[in-house]
């Protein structure tokens, strides 16, 4: 697992298909993730946080962690970008 850090200490999140990432309401740069091509969140599997391209994830709009059968269904039906 790699975590890339640039000179300005901005991090990029590395994740795998099936990982659950909890999105922050605001990105690291202060923009709302809805209006951005990048998101900021925490991968629950690794506990690491960072920026990642929004086009690489499927957003499940929910306020609580979805049940396992929902997550398995999403992983099985969505191709990896």
How would you portray this structure in words?
The chain is an alpha+beta fold and 81 residues long. A hairpin with a 5-residue loop joins strand 4 and strand 5 (49-53). The chain has one domain: Roll (SH3 type barrels). The longest helix is centred in the C-terminal third of the chain and has 10 residues, at 68-77. The protein has 1 helix and 5 strands, in the order βββββα.
> What class, by secondary structure content?
alpha+beta
Q: Which band does the percent of strand residues land in?
A: 15-25%
CATH architecture: Roll
> What's the tally of helices?
1
**Total tally of structural domains:** 1
**Shape summary:** globular
CATH topological fold name: SH3 type barrels
Number of strands: 5
Query: Considering the protein shown, what is the CATH homologous superfamily?
Result: SH3 Domains
CATH class: Mainly Beta
- End-to-end gap: 18 Å
- Approximate helicity band: 10-25%
- Which strand order spans the largest sheet, edge to edge or round the barrel? 3-4-5
- Look at the structure and give the mean pLDDT: 75
Radius of gyration: 13 Å
Largest sheet: 3 strands, antiparallel
């Amino acid at each position: 697992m790699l975590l890339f850090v640039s000179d300005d200490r901005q991090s990029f999140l590395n994740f795998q298909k099936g990982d659950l990432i909890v999105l922050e309401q605001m990105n690291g740069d202060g923009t709302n993730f809805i209006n951005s091509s990048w998101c900021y969140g925490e991968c629950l599997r690794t506990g690491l946080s960072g920026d990642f391209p929004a086009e690489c994830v499927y957003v499940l709009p929910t306020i609580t962690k979805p049940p396992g059968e929902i997550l398995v269904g999403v992983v099985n039906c969505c191709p990896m970008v």
